[in-house]
Amino acid sequence: MNSDHDTLLLHTEVRWLSRGNVLQRLFELKDELRLFLLDAKSPLASCLSNARWLVILAYMADIFEKLNILNTSLQGPNTHILLLNDKICAFIKKLELWKSLCENDNTEMFGSMSGFIQENELSFDDVKPIILTHLDNLGKHKTSHTTARTLPTHS
User: Fold this and answer.
1) 8 A C-beta contact, residue 29 and residue 3
2) At what angle do helices 111-119 and 51-73 cross, to 10 degrees?
3) Greatest extent of the chain over all pairs of C-alpha atoms, in Å
4) How far, in Å, CA of 72 to CA of 149, rounded?
């Protein structure tokens, strides 16, 4: 069908880092997969015909891609706790920025979702509360992981 991919990634246990890749591949093959599922008379085909479901899938592919990039940047021989803390704090700030932008209907930072919405002339308003809640929940985990602790002072 002239797809960029000729296979769908199938794993019984997908490692965390590759989950975003699976979501991205699923989104890229949505049309071919929908036809396959329709031919197989699977009830899952209805998901791939549902524009709202596809917008959320595109968002999840985008956010997992960003999480994969963060995860990869936290690994390697030239890392130390201060650098890692800075990267995590910067990502949390990005989450806050992305939420703020989404509140103003700007979704450019989520390329797959934004492109799908524009190509299909959809309204972001249909999924906006879901996306905002998700971004807010991702940011809420910061308090337990990044709250600075004061060191005891010696007199």
Assistant:
1) yes
2) 160
3) 76
4) 26
Confidence of residue 1 (pLDDT cuts 50, 70, 90): low
Express each pLDDT in 111-145 by its tens digit.
999 999 999 999 999 999 999 999 999 988 654 44
pLDDT tens for each residue of 20-37: 688 999 999 999 999 999
User: How far does Cα 133 stand from its chain's mean position?
Assistant: 13
- pLDDT surpasses 70 at 2: no
How far apart, in Å, are the Cα atoms of 3 and each of 32, 56, 58, 133? 8, 22, 17, 33
Which conformational region is residue 14 in: left (phi greater than 0), alpha (psi within -120 to 50 degrees), or beta?
beta
Domain ranges of the chain: 16-145
Scored b (16 or more CB within 10 A) or e, 17-28 reads eebbbbbbbbbb
Residue 151, helix vs strand vs coil: coil
